[in-house]
Every structure is written in C-alpha cells, then in structure tokens.
Amino acid sequence: MLSAVALLPALCAAATYSQELDPAARARIEQARASLVIVKLLDQQNQATSEATGFLIRKDLIATDLELDRNSHVQVTTGTTGASIEVGHPGHYFLPYVLIQTQADILPLSLGDSERVAQNDAVYMLSDSAKIVTGRITGTTMIKNTRAFSLDLPVNSNNRGAPVFNRYGEVIGIATKSPDGQGTGLAWPSEMLAGLKHLGEPGVGVGSGDGPRFGDSAPPLTTGTPSVTSVDTKPVPLNSPRPRYTEAARANDVQGSVLVRVLVGEDGSVKSVRVVRGLPFGLTEEAMNVARETKFKPAMKDGKPVPYWVGLEISFNLR
C-alpha cells in the first residue's frame, strides 16, 4: 500500500486540463439548474434594488454575490418555478450568504476544492439558454485582501452569483463582476464556502448584519478558534501520518484521494476537519484521522501565529 498526505497548493502555474466533460460531470452541471435561486433586495416599498443568482450549499443556506445589510428585505424565489422561499430572520445571516428555512425539494450543490484550481484550468457555467458554456481561469486578483479567480467568461447581471464549476461538475467559485465594471468575470473561491456550510453547528456562530462582508480581511467564520482569510505564510505540515487501508476498501480495490480542509490553530495542531471529497468503505474516516494527527508549522501574519484553514489531500493507492 502506498499512501500520501499532500498540502494543496493555492494556485499552480500553467496547469492545463481537457475542456471535455465526462457524461457524469455534464449531468451534474445540467441538473444544477434546478438548484439555482433568485435573490432580490427590496426597499421599503418592496421594489427590487439589487438582484443576483444564488445556489444552495446546504438545504438551509444560500450562497450569492449580493451584499446585505440589517435593513435589507430579502426575497428568494426558485429559478425554475418562481416559487417563493421564506427567508430567515434578517438579523441572522453571514454576508453575502442568506440563511433560509430548510428546503426539501432543492438539492445543495457539491463544492470542489478551489485550492487545487490552476491557471488555464477549464471552468463551466450555465447560460440563460440552458447550455453549458466553457471558459478558463486566466489568473488571480486580490479584492479587499481576498483572492478571486479571473475568468475569460463574462459576468453580468444575469449570471452574477451563479456557480462556477470545474471539470468534475463541482462548484469551485461564485461568479462576480469586476470592480471596474468591465466585462471580465471573476469568481470568489469555494474555499470561502467550505467553513460556512457548518454555520449553526455547535461551536460555530452565525454572522449578523454588523459582521464582516465578503472580501473583508475580517474572519469569515466565528468558531472556538477564529480563523483569518489572509496570511503572510500558510501552514506547513511537519509530519506525514500514514493512513490505514480498511479491509473493505482493499477487498473492493478502492483507490483515490480524500480531500479535506483543516483549521490549523496557533499551536500548529488541527482544530477542525471538514470533508470536501471522500471515498467509500471507511477511507474517508481514516483520512480524517490522519488529518487530525498531522502537525503543522502554523500560519503567520505580522510575525505572529494565527489560525488558518488549509486543504489536505490524503491518497490511497494499492500496489
């Protein structure tokens, strides 16, 4: 058995992938249309002042590109039927994510690992005519101390807030318009969504209208160990625990990688583990154990250690 633990890079230079989608990935993207919603901000006269697409990352949590404030009245409707969705209390949301009541009929979209996204990678979006359009990552840019991907696909009022997919049919970003108003598209990375999927769980706080906005340097998530969104140096693993191959996985010839995100504390220990992509027959659980056992040199900001979320890839290979 050959197993490996690798720290995922922030952005690999000049990596290329085929633009062709396999049937499963194409089906996932096409089916995602049923998971899209329309988010509108209304004034006191119930007139729309701003509008964007949104999509569920959890059955009670929407990701969108709109910035809300405490006085905003939010209207959410499904993109396919126009049916209204009841929004949670306007004082309890984390910008720009809208906390809503559980939706049994709308499936959340699967998140990919944006830390593995590389320049020249193919990306995909849904057009107004229900077609899948293909583009590429052209680079990265910083907006208010937050990294965003540059796309060669236009982002306008019709697709702002829409999901941007990778070649596996996973969401690796939220479409947003360039601050200069030009047609060049940008995408907030899905790494901003990974921790927010767990809002409301024990030890995880839900932000409010007075909290930080998306793109600010303030923490995107309040936990027992608050993290930061920008650092001078990222965590560096100091050991490589070997994952255990389960007998069931070996018997079924299961190989591949488990992707997780871990919150590395100021002391270099792992405080929390979130699964991005797993494997069957107990390998996901084994990978989580490896992640918890991994020790890091902590992230540094202004000469001090700080908590920081980082991606890990734990590989399982039979030989």
Protein architecture, described:
The protein is mainly beta. It is built from 4 helices and 20 strands. The strands form 5 sheets. It has a 6-stranded antiparallel sheet with strand order 6-5-2-3-4-7, with no helix packed on it. A hairpin with a 5-residue loop joins strand 8 (122-126) and strand 9 (132-143). The termini are close together. 39% of the residues are buried.
Fourth-level CATH superfamily of the largest domain: Trypsin-like serine proteases
The dominant shape is globular
Tally the helices: what do you get? Answer: 4
Distance, first to last CA: 5 Å
Number of strands: 20
- Helical fraction: under 10%
Q: Which regions contain 5 or more consecutive residues with pLDDT less than 50?
A: 9-18, 89-96, 199-226
Task: Give the overall pLDDT as a whole number.
Answer: 76
Quaternary state of the chains: single chain
Residue fraction in strands: 35-45%
What is the CATH domain class of the largest domain?
Answer: Mainly Beta
Kindly report the spatial arrangement of strands forming the biggest sheet.
6-5-2-3-4-7
Properties at a glance:
single chain, 319 residues, mainly beta, Thrombin, subunit H, TolA/TonB C-terminal domain, six-stranded antiparallel beta sheet, 4 helices
Give a quick rundown of the structure.
With 319 residues, the protein is mostly beta strands.
Task: Give the helix/strand layout.
Layout: E1 2-7, H1 23-31, E2 36-42, E3 48-58, E4 61-64, E5 73-78, E6 84-85, E7 97-99, E8 122-126, E9 132-143, E10 146-154, E11 163-165, E12 171-177, E13 184-189, H2 191-194, E14 236-237, H3 247-251, E15 256-264, E16 270-277, H4 283-293, E17 296-297, E18 299-301, E19 304-306, E20 308-317
Antiparallel strand pairs: 1-20, 2-3, 2-5, 3-4, 4-7, 5-6, 8-9, 9-10, 10-13, 11-12, 12-13, 14-17, 15-16, 15-20, 18-19
